[in-house]
Amino acid sequence: MYQITKCLVSHLLLFTIFSAFGIKTTIADPNIISKSQWNGVESINELSQQALPIGRVIILHTAGAGCQDVDSCSQQVRNIQKYHLDLHFDDIGYNFLVGNDGNVYEGRGWDLMGAAVKNYNNGSLSVAFIGTFENDPPTDQALEAAQSLLEMGVRTAKLIEDYKLLGHRQLASTLSPGAVLYKIIKQWPHWTRRAR
């Protein structure tokens, strides 16, 4: 845990120094596995469009098993989609999912409203880390992929520049995104205590 926190602090420090001198810093775009690539099924009904740019990002965990490679992560995402459909969702509830393999898996994407956090779906982007992060952190690759996704969102005007970042537990009675992951995201620059 100490190493991950130290690594994140180092990255933030370098970003701050570079920004102070007007040096642009860019994390490489994440590798996004499309819904068709992970063999997702089509939405049951037409999904609501999301008003862009989005002002709030909610970090969650999916709970249950994690994954370490494209095959196991794709299977987990299919399992999650099936579970959500069994609960009578119109599709997988998350906008994006992040695997411990360092890939981002497309759920509803940028342009469609998620169905992950009751009363907070409108105006929010839900990013779910695949697995349970109550005792162990996601991999460095997963954390970097999530941060890269958010940076890409700002750069492509899908997210506002000063978006607010929250953990799921700040908005609902839940352990999500897990104690360890929540502690990590509280160090990220856009994290806020305030839900609104």
TrEMBL record:
<feature type="domain" description="N-acetylmuramoyl-L-alanine amidase">
    <location>
        <begin position="44"/>
        <end position="178"/>
    </location>
</feature>
<keyword id="KW-0732">Signal</keyword>
<dbReference type="Pfam" id="PF01510">
    <property type="entry name" value="Amidase_2"/>
</dbReference>
<dbReference type="InterPro" id="IPR017331">
    <property type="entry name" value="Peptidoglycan_recognition"/>
</dbReference>
<keyword id="KW-0391">Immunity</keyword>
<comment type="similarity">
    <text>Belongs to the N-acetylmuramoyl-L-alanine amidase 2 family.</text>
</comment>
<dbReference type="GO" id="GO:0008745">
    <property type="term" value="F:N-acetylmuramoyl-L-alanine amidase activity"/>
</dbReference>
<dbReference type="GO" id="GO:0045087">
    <property type="term" value="P:innate immune response"/>
</dbReference>
<keyword id="KW-1015">Disulfide bond</keyword>
<keyword id="KW-0964">Secreted</keyword>
<dbReference type="InterPro" id="IPR002502">
    <property type="entry name" value="Amidase_domain"/>
</dbReference>
<dbReference type="GO" id="GO:0009253">
    <property type="term" value="P:peptidoglycan catabolic process"/>
</dbReference>
<feature type="domain" description="Peptidoglycan recognition protein family">
    <location>
        <begin position="30"/>
        <end position="172"/>
    </location>
</feature>
<protein>
    <recommendedName>
        <fullName>Peptidoglycan-recognition protein</fullName>
    </recommendedName>
</protein>
<dbReference type="GO" id="GO:0005576">
    <property type="term" value="C:extracellular region"/>
</dbReference>
<dbReference type="GO" id="GO:0042834">
    <property type="term" value="F:peptidoglycan binding"/>
</dbReference>
<feature type="disulfide bond">
    <location>
        <begin position="67"/>
        <end position="73"/>
    </location>
</feature>
<dbReference type="InterPro" id="IPR036505">
    <property type="entry name" value="Amidase/PGRP_sf"/>
</dbReference>
<keyword id="KW-0399">Innate immunity</keyword>
<dbReference type="InterPro" id="IPR006619">
    <property type="entry name" value="PGRP_domain_met/bac"/>
</dbReference>
<dbReference type="InterPro" id="IPR015510">
    <property type="entry name" value="PGRP"/>
</dbReference>
<feature type="signal peptide">
    <location>
        <begin position="1"/>
        <end position="28"/>
    </location>
</feature>
<dbReference type="GO" id="GO:0008270">
    <property type="term" value="F:zinc ion binding"/>
</dbReference>
